[in-house]
Amino acid sequence: MVYEKFALQLSRFEEDLQKLAKDIASGVIFERLEPNELWKRSEETVTRLMELLESLHEKMLILKPEKAPIIENQYKNMAKALKNFKEILFQKTPEPLANSRLAFEQLRKAVTDGSDLLVLMREIRDEPNPVIDMVMRLKTAAENKGPVLTIETPKELQPIIEKVFKHIEAVRASIISAEKALGEVKLHLRSLQQEFLQTTGKKEAKADVKDEPQKPKNDRQLSLSQFKPEGGA
């Protein structure tokens, strides 16, 4: 999935870079324009290039990590030039055309840096890191539930890959079996708990009946006159 997105974004990046270079060469964009007009004519393409550059930068590092130093260097060069172009145009100055000239130089630099970066991107697209490429293809196959053997991998790795997937399936089956057994145990425990509570409840009810004090046969209320004070006649 990463590789496919990278290839698609690379194509769009190349188209926008070519458009920007063409606009500069044909005079659609030139240094004597007012800053607002220069930005207006280039905003859409420049903004899209900046967004694509960020996304492609991340994917390049994933697909070819051993090229990280050169990727970072070329990415920063172009990103800085595009950023400078925009910032210079929006600076307030008594000489706006001077800003346009400086910004235009940064834009041309961005096109040059972008051309160098494009060469590197094509190289990464055509020759990604073989290990990373294999892992991503395996991941895609697993997500799509496709057969592992349809993936082009070194022959010596195929038995290992098959064994790993078999172990994964075995573990998954064991987990399902354990979950089922655990569910049955919970049901038995719940039944025992209910029986225990019922038995305990009956015993407590009987105990309450036994402990209840016996009422006197003559349950008439005694009156105060029936009690005689001590020493009385």
Task: Write structural notes for this entry.
With 233 residues, the protein is an all-alpha fold. The chain has two domains: 143 residues, A middle domain of Talin 1 (Up-down Bundle), CATH 1.20.1420; 49 residues. It contains six helices and no strands. The C terminus is likely disordered.
Brief overview, please?
By secondary structure, the protein is an all-alpha fold. 76% of the residues lie in helices and 0% in strands. It folds into 2 domains: 2-144, A middle domain of Talin 1; 156-204.
Largest sheet: none
Terminus-to-terminus distance: 114 Å
The total tally of domains equals: 2
Number of strands: 0
Discrete helix count: 6
Shape: elongated
The poorly predicted ranges are 217-233
CATH architectural arrangement of the largest domain: Up-down Bundle
Strand content: under 5%
- At the first level of CATH, the class of the largest domain is Mainly Alpha
Fraction of helical residues: over 70%
Give the topology string: H per helix, E per strand: HHHHHH
